[in-house]
Write a structure and sequence with these properties.
mainly alpha; 2 domains; 7 helices; 0% strand; disordered N terminus
């Protein structure tokens, strides 16, 4: 059942009506369904183009944020692995592997993100460095100011936990 009226454009020039802008603020779900119907019906003069564009931008940024988030966790655990070899754990190894898989999945699903990997690494290295300092009590000055790891190392360096108890 359509929520669209059979009337023509509510405003000239393809801008959203006041009604559409209010719907966007009050019930985004209903607004989204209406915008979908308008687009499918090619009733472009009635769409809420500004808010649609903002929502699409938010979707794109969420996908970039997922990439960044996974990279931050990888970088945190690599820093901990390198700076606290005596505390290495299977959970750090597993976390690196899991978040690498997330990065790979994001890049496979959204190939355009590949052009932003360097930016994402640099942005999230700062977070990883700060978190590592907090978690390990190692002074922040002991960590490189900018990311010391190349992409290949972040995504493919082997991390093998060897349980000392198992060796005995």
């Amino acid at each position: 059942m359509s929520t669209l009226s059979k009337e023509g454009p509510k405003e000239k020039g393809g801008s959203a009506s006041a009604e559409a802008r209010t719907a966007y603020k009050q019930d985004m779900h209903a607004w989204a369904l209406e915008q979908i119907e308008l687009l499918k019906a090619a009733r472009f003069a009635e769409i809420d183009a500004l808010n649609i564009a903002e929502e699409i931008q938010d979707v794109a940024e969420r996908e970039y944020d997922k990439l960044e988030s996974a990279l931050a966790i990888i970088l945190l655990h690599i820093l901990k692995w390198d700076h606290q070899p005596e505390r290495r754990s299977r959970s750090w190894q597993n976390s690196i592997l899991e978040h690498r898989a997330r990065v790979e999945r994001q890049l496979r699903k959204f190939p355009s993100l590949k052009s932003r990997t360097g930016e994402a690494v640099e942005e999230r290295y700062e977070d990883a460095r700060r978190w590592c300092q907090i978690e390990t009590y190692i002074p922040e000055v002991d960590f490189a100011f900018s990311c010391p790891y190349e992409w290949e190392e972040i995504t493919a360096r082997p991390f093998v936990y060897e349980d000392e108890r198992a060796k005995k």
